[in-house]
Each structure stands twice: as C-alpha cells, then as structure tokens.
What we know:
Elements: H1 5-15, H2 23-46, H3 48-80, H4 91-114, H5 119-151, H6 153-172
Helix pairs in contact: 1-4, 1-5, 1-6, 2-4, 2-5, 3-4, 3-6
Amino acid sequence: MSLCADCFAVTTCSSVTLKSVTWRRVLPIALVFAVVQTMFMLLGWLFGDLFVGYIHKVAGILGFLLLLFVGGSMILEAIKGGDEVRDLNGLRNIFIGAVATSIDALAVGVSMSMASPTASEMAADHAALFVVTFLSVVAGMFGGYRVGHRYGRPAEIIGGIVLIAIGARLLFGC
C-alpha cells in the first residue's frame, strides 16, 4: 500500500482539473498506472544487481522533474484560466504520472531481488501491487474530481503544489 500512496496522491491532485470522470475514462488510466508500477517492480527484481548503484542516484531527480512538470502545468493552467486541461488527458501525461510514481517500485524490486524470494512469492507480491495500485488510482480519480468540481481553481493550484511537494520529497528524501 505504501508504494501506491504516490499514485493515489498524483491521481487525486491531477483529477481536480477534469471536467468529468466516468468509468470508461478511469479504468484505462488505472490500468496504465498499475501496469507501469508492476513492471517497474518486476524490472527491479529481474535486474537488481545491475541497478543497485544507479537507482538511488537518479530516482529522486527523475521523480522530482516529472512531478514538477505535471504540477507546474496544473498551476499554470489554473492561473491562466484556460479550458484546456493537460493533466491525465492524453497518454503522455498519464505515462509521465505513472513513471514518476513508480520509481520507488523499481527500488523495491531491487531490494526484493537481494532477498532471493521464490517465483511464487514474487508473483503474489506483483499481483498485490497491481490490484492495490489499480484501486488507489480509481479512488484517487473519483475523489479528486469531486474536490475539483466543488472547489475549482483553488483545488487545481493546491493539487499542483502537492505534486511539486511530492517531487521535492523524492529529491530531498524528506
């Protein structure tokens, strides 16, 4: 569940800008986040020995830059007052959000590889991660939409600030 907290936070904050939220819109986004999160953990597990030295060096910087882009875009759109909403609209923004929130899953996969779990243990861990990520994104999107629908632009600005703060936490390890 702790790996999915960032997914929940990012989709909640990003969803405050959406004009509508339907199951048809939410399910593919939740699927992308769940697949990316699960694949990053799998890659970390498969290539753990190769990644150990590099993950900690770039993870915080990469996560910060990605969330700065998404959060900054939200804030700028809210200030401009434009109708064009960038966050969680379009595969590129969805993928950026999914990657930004999945870097820690890569690190967890690396650490799990060092514990030498069995294939069945890893399969269970990956299945659990997939399901919890999927559900956290669904909950985040519906919750964020409700907050944004009720509070409008201030919610967009606060959402952008929260995303940048999450990125800063990744960068500075706070």
